[in-house]
Structures are given as structure tokens and as C-alpha cells.
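User: Can you recover a sequence for this backbone? Please restate the input before giving your answer.

Assistant: Of course. Working from this structure:
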């Protein structure tokens, strides 16, 4: 099975992201207060292994550094944090539209390993580091390859490898950014984030700069979360 994934340009871009997402919404989300941190470690290790195994089938999987990537990464961080108080999050919005339970009646699930393992504990810091490394080094590769390399171009043509990375397509961009936003609790920031990263790919004709911008955003968010104790962003 893995050999088929490694040989397929489509599967190599889709399977690592889907496996990572499935572990998130099933095993991690459905586990206990301490278990979910261990599942995050497991999915990070599995995701990193799959990216490594599939790397030869994704020629554009190369980190690139540019001033534009730095600007976009910092800008998206500012949007993510700055907009947060001013719009309903995904569960609140769904409830307002008549779907799901009232989130005000459910205790929020917040990632804070110091609650699970003790304030200032070694285990708490271990999972802070794991989360920081996972969100900064692995998630940008998984998401940018899936959304920007595969999905954006596949929505233009099933023969997506023939579509240049810098080809603009309004419908594809709207759908890709919408799907990207749907997988994030902060959906509005997710839309703007998707536009910014996709715009960077269109400008540079490669995904490496978007990976770097994504990593900068997530690293700044990690610093913000830990320094300010604002765990809702994790």
C-alpha cells in the first residue's frame, strides 16, 4: 500500500494529510485529557514518516526563504490574533445557523498540557515542544502540499501536475480557501490565511515560500500561546 502511495503523485500529496487529519478527529479528539497529548505525538511522528516516504513524488516540496514569506507569515499571525475577539468561531457560527449544540453550554476543549500534567511539569513542557515542532515544521508541509500543490490545481484540472503553480483561478482559490477555513476553528482568519498563502504561491510559482510563511505564523502563535497563556489558539 505504501509503495502505491509513494509512486502516485496524487496519493503522495493527499494520504499524509488525510492520515494526519483522521488521527486528529478520531483518536486524538476522542481520547482523554492526557491521552490526546500522546496522540498528538503519535500523529506528528506518523505524519513526518509519511512526508519523508513520499518526498520523491512531490518535486515542489522544498523550503524556500524570501522577504515576502516573512511578511506574509507575520501578517497572518497578526490577523489570527487581532481578529479573534470580533467574530463568532466555527461552532458558534454553526449554532447561529441552526446546526449543532449551543457551544456556551459545553466546556471548551483547550490544549494546555500544564493542566493535564501539572504546572511547570517536565511532561507539560515536553508536549509544548512537541506541539511547537509539529505545528511549525510538519503542518506547513502537510497543508501546503495538500491545499496549494494538490487541491488548488486539481480543482482546475484532474491532470493537476500540468497546471502551473502560478496560474490564477478564482473559483479554485475560493473553494480551496473555504475548505481550508472549514478545518479551522477560527474560520474567518482561516479564509484570509488561505488567501495570503495562496497569493504567495501565485507570486513565487512555488510552495516553499508558503511553507515558510506558514511556519513563521505557527511559530509566532506558539510563542504567543506560551508567553501569554492564551491557549485557545492551540
Amino acid at each position: 500500500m505504501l509503495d502505491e502511495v509513494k509512486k502516485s503523485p496524487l496519493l503522495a500529496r493527499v494520504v499524509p494529510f488525510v492520515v494526519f487529519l483522521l488521527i486528529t478527529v478520531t483518536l486524538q479528539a476522542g481520547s482523554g485529557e492526557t491521552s490526546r497529548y500522546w496522540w498528538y505525538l503519535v500523529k506528528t511522528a506518523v505524519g513526518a514518516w509519511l512526508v519523508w516516504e513520499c518526498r520523491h513524488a512531490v518535486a515542489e516540496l522544498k523550503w524556500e526563504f524570501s522577504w515576502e514569506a516573512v511578511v506574509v507569515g507575520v501578517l497572518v499571525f497578526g490577523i489570527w490574533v487581532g481578529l479573534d475577539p470580533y467574530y463568532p468561531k466555527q461552532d458558534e457560527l454553526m449554532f447561529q445557523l441552526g446546526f449543532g449544540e449551543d457551544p456556551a453550554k459545553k466546556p471548551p476543549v483547550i490544549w494546555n498540557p500544564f493542566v493535564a500534567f501539572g504546572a511547570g511539569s517536565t511532561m507539560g513542557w515536553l508536549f509544548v515542544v512537541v506541539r511547537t515542532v509539529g505545528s511549525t515544521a510538519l503542518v506547513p508541509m502537510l497543508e501546503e502540499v495538500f491545499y496549494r500543490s494538490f487541491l488548488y490545481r486539481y480543482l482546475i484540472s484532474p491532470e493537476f501536475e500540468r497546471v502551473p503553480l502560478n496560474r490564477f483561478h478564482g473559483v479554485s482559490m475560493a473553494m480551496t480557501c473555504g475548505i481550508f477555513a472549514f478545518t479551522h476553528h477560527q474560520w474567518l482568519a482561516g479564509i484570509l490565511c488561505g488567501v495570503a498563502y495562496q497569493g504567495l504561491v501565485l507570486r513565487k510559482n512555488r510552495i516553499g515560500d508558503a511553507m515558510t510563511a506558514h511556519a513563521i505564523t505557527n511559530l509566532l502563535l506558539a510563542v504567543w500561546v506560551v508567553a501569554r497563556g492564551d491557549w485557545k489558539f492551540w
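That completes the design. Residues 63-233 form one domain.
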